[in-house]
Amino acid sequence: VQLQASGGGLVQAGDSLRLSCAASGVTFSTYTTAWFRQAPGKEREFVAVISWSGLSIVYTDSVKGRFTISKDNAKNTMYLQMNSLKPEDTAVYYCAVPKAGRVVAITAGQYDYWGQGTQVTVSS
């Protein structure tokens, strides 16, 4: 399984970014997929998850109403649309997939496959 995250960058507070996660070796139509992030000196934290069916979506409270997770099964790609970015959103963002493909989890320990991460930096 390989996950390739992209789309990060340096933006100002209030701007938007869209992250992408392309996969090989796993089919997003049958696997839950999630975004996590890790800021310097902090533990990796959950951001959002979308179930294999797309019917179940969970966000961490700090991004609700600003971030939107989605996926395109035909392209086997997952997205994270990030609007109204804040300096506290600065982190490396990772996409992840669990071996137990259909579990909808918000803890990093339940995910087995990780992308390489893409840096998001939001300046004030």
Explain what you see.
- It is a single chain.
- It contains no helices and eleven strands.
- By secondary structure, the chain is mainly beta.
- The strands form two sheets. Strands 2, 4, 5, 6, 9, 10 and 11 form a seven-stranded mixed β-sheet that branches. A four-stranded antiparallel β-sheet has the order 1-3-8-7, with no helix packed on it.
- The protein has strands at 2-6, 9-12, 17-24, 33-38, 45-50, 57-59, 67-72, 77-82, 91-97, 113-114, 118-123.
- The model has no long low-confidence stretch (mean pLDDT 96).
- The relative contact order is 0.32.
Describe the structure using short key phrases.
mainly beta; 11 strands; 0% helix
Short description:
The protein is mainly β and 124 residues long.
Q: Helicity range of the residues?
A: under 10%
Number of helices: 0
The shape is globular
Structural class: mainly beta
Number of strands: 11
Low-confidence stretches: none
- Whole-angstrom Rg: 13 Å
Largest sheet: 7 strands, mixed
* SSE run: EEEEEEEEEEE
Mean pLDDT over all positions:
96
- Approximately what portion of the residues adopt beta-strand conformation? over 45%
Distance between the termini: 37 Å
